[in-house]
Write a structure and sequence with these properties.
The chain has 272 residues and is an alpha/beta fold. The chain has an eight-stranded mixed sheet, with helices on both faces. α8 links the parallel β7 and β8. α2 crosses α10 and α5 crosses α7. The protein starts with a strand and ends with a helix. The relative contact order is 0.16.
């Protein structure tokens, strides 16, 4: 556990473990908008480390343990530049970028901007922002502004995850203890600026080996036609479609995700 100081009052909390053998890649995990390192560090990252791979998990500015100054807009371009700066600071060698949801978009933009990576994993990332998702994106800051993240999760959680996971998690939800999220809170800042994310990337130009994993129980972001069409544009892609998971793959099916990443990591490591 460490902190990378971006500038005065701005920092990134991270957890880095070097690989145990020469040439083994380091998996760099890029969170979803309200994510944190624990999503990766509970099961996925330790499993990868046990097989000799390196791992780097971190929190965006505004997420747990990562500081930002009040005047800082936590916009997508800043998140992408922070990712690049952190990787260059640590200099882990060969890396595989793993992004969940919008985190996959940030990872792709970082690669387009010159961050060197040997592989890319997009977890429930492929999407287009049409009227439905534009509505969702615009509603998120309004909902948390009225009732905080608990209200947002109470409303949307069963639409994000598989039924088994939702049923097990339900006792932790629907408490009714809602309070507006402070506009100065990091999550509010991140949500406020997330709409500026550029989703219209050229997937045909993502020439690095790419693994796409999609959970069919994601009732919010998954659109089969869009995923199929964008996936077909990727020059060097492999695909997994899971009928037992939704949007939150590291939490819903951590062992399954770790196994998929191990397979991909071994493929990348073997490339000279």
């Amino acid at each position: 556990m460490a902190v990378y100081d971006v500038s005065a009052g701005n920092s990134l909390y991270y957890e880095h473990h070097a690989p145990e053998r020469d040439g083994a890649p380091t998996f760099v995990f890029v969170n979803a908008l309200t994510g944190n390192t624990q999503a990766w560090e509970a099961v996925v990252a330790p499993t990868l480390r046990a097989e000799g791979f390196g791992t780097l998990s971190y929190n965006f500015r505004g997420q747990d343990g990562s500081e930002f100054t009040p005047e800082t807009a936590l916009a997508p371009d800043l998140i992408v530049s922070d990712l690049t700066a952190l990787v260059e600071h640590i200099n882990p060698g060969r890396i595989i970028l793993v992004g969940l949801s919008i985190g996959g978009l940030f990872a792709a933009h970082a690669w387009f901007n010159g961050l060197k990576a040997d592989g890319l994993v997009l977890l429930n990332t492929l999407r287009e922002i049409g009227p439905r998702l534009s509505w969702v994106n615009d509603a998120m800051p309004m909902v948390v502004g009225a009732g905080g993240v608990p209200l947002f999760l109470d409303a949307i959680f069963p639409l994000l995850v598989n039924p088994e996971f939702a049923q097990a998690a339900r006792p932790n939800f629907l408490k009714g203890e809602y309070a507006p999220l402070d506009p100065a809170h990091g999550h509010a800042n991140l949500m406020q600026h997330a709409g500026a994310a550029d989703w219209e990337i050229d997937y045909s130009a993502l020439t690095l080996p790419t693994l796409v994993v999609t959970g069919l129980h994601d009732r919010v972001f998954y659109d089969a036609e869009v995923v199929d069409r964008l996936y077909a544009l990727l020059p060097d892609a492999r695909r997994e479609t899971w009928d037992d998971a939704g949007h939150l793959l590291p939490q819903e099916r951590p062992q399954k995700l770790a196994a998929s990443l191990l397979t991909f990591g071994r493929e990348i490591e073997a490339k000279v």
